[in-house]
Write a structure and sequence with these properties.
Blueprint (H helix, E strand, L loop, with lengths): L1 H27 L5 H6 L5 H11 L5 H13 L13 H36 L4 H15 L2 H15 L15 H35 L2 H8 L4 H10 L3 H25 L5 H10 L3 H29 L7
Helix pairs in contact: 1-13, 5-6, 5-8, 5-11, 5-13, 6-8, 7-8, 7-11, 8-11, 11-12, 11-13, 12-13
Length: 314
């Protein structure tokens, strides 16, 4: 286990370098001149040149790249061009809200998707199975921004069960915060429920036909124990894989969801950075996104051995 963990950590290094290179290139492909956006269209050529020199934009591209990588490796993501604050402080101010939304969506997806997939597998080709597949298909077909708008119209505007806007008051009231979290988390959780249910059904169908399941059933093992202990545990690896892979998609969808529900989070920060052509803030946000995905993928690999002792870290 220790050797495998060290190997995984060593593989993170080239992955981070590739990611940093991609971030550096993509940010500079965004149209528009940073100095012109900051100073305005009426700025003089001398002012624009002075600002480009202060930001290092007049340097050759390879010098800018080496400077960028060197600062990131030392933990310096730079300062926001629009606010003057450090990128780390800007991100840390809103990151808890996005993490809260992502974790809540994952919890909803597992809480609804696992039972739905298990029941569908146990009733293969029955009406419950067909109904679960229809529900999963609907969940996969609706984009996050479409389902989010529909939820706002129905549950917030017409029924008035939940607030229209996110919890932006800063009151810190727990009840208000939970009420504001329900619709955004449910919006993302339904999509994840569809993924988890389909994968759980497929994995359970494969396990339920194994010889050791038939043997356990012949020995008189109770149905609940047979399903939860023998079948589900041996179906967890593909489920864990889907959760790990979907984490990156979930963060991306959370950006749109935060904008729709007017929640504080990385979504508004990204839109503001794009509008202000704040390339240092964009770089920092993309790096943090990528690091989160790398960490989750590493934890996913390590979780395989925890749920299935047959997995050997060689």
């Amino acid at each position: 286990m220790t050797h495998y963990l060290l190997r995984r950590l060593l593989l993170v290094i080239p992955t981070l370098l590739i990611m940093l290179t991609a971030v550096f290139v993509l940010v500079r492909l965004v149209p528009g001149d940073t100095a012109s956006v900051i100073l305005g269209d009426q700025a003089s050529a001398a002012s624009l040149a002075a600002l480009r020199a202060r930001l290092g934009l007049d340097q050759p591209i390879y010098v800018q790249y080496l400077t960028f990588v060197g600062k990131v490796l030392t933990g310096d993501l730079g300062q926001s061009l629009s606010t003057g604050r450090s990128v780390i402080s800007e991100v840390l101010q809103v990151l808890p809200s996005t993490i809260q939304l992502t974790v809540a969506a994952i919890a909803i997806g597992l809480f609804l998707g696992l039972p739905l997939g298990i029941v569908a597998a146990l009733n293969r080709n029955g009406w419950i199975d067909y109904a679960s597949r229809v529900v999963s298909l609907v969940g996969l077909s609706f984009p996050a921004f479409v389902s989010g708008i529909l939820m706002l119209i129905v549950f917030a505007i017409q029924l008035g069960w939940f607030p229209v806007l996110g919890n932006t008051s800063g009151s810190g009231d727990l009840v208000d915060g939970l009420r504001a979290l329900v619709l955004p988390a449910l919006n993302l959780g339904i999509i994840m429920t569809a993924y988890v249910a389909r994968v759980t059904r497929a994995a359970m169908l494969g396990v339920l036909t194994e010889d050791y399941i038939r043997t356990a059933r012949a020995k008189g093992v109770r149905p609940r124990q047979l399903v939860m202990t023998h079948a589900l545990r041996n179906s967890l690896i593909p489920i864990i894989t889907v959760v790990g892979l979907y984490f990156g998609t979930l963060i991306g969808n959370s950006v749109l969801t935060e904008i729709i529900f007017n929640r504080p989070g990385l979504g508004k920060l990204i839109i503001g950075a794009l509008n202000a052509r704040d390339y240092t803030l964009l770089q920092g946000l993309m790096i943090i996104f990528a690091v989160c995905v790398i960490i989750v993928n590493t934890l996913t690999d390590l979780a395989y051995g925890l749920v299935d002792p047959r997995v050997e870290y060689t």
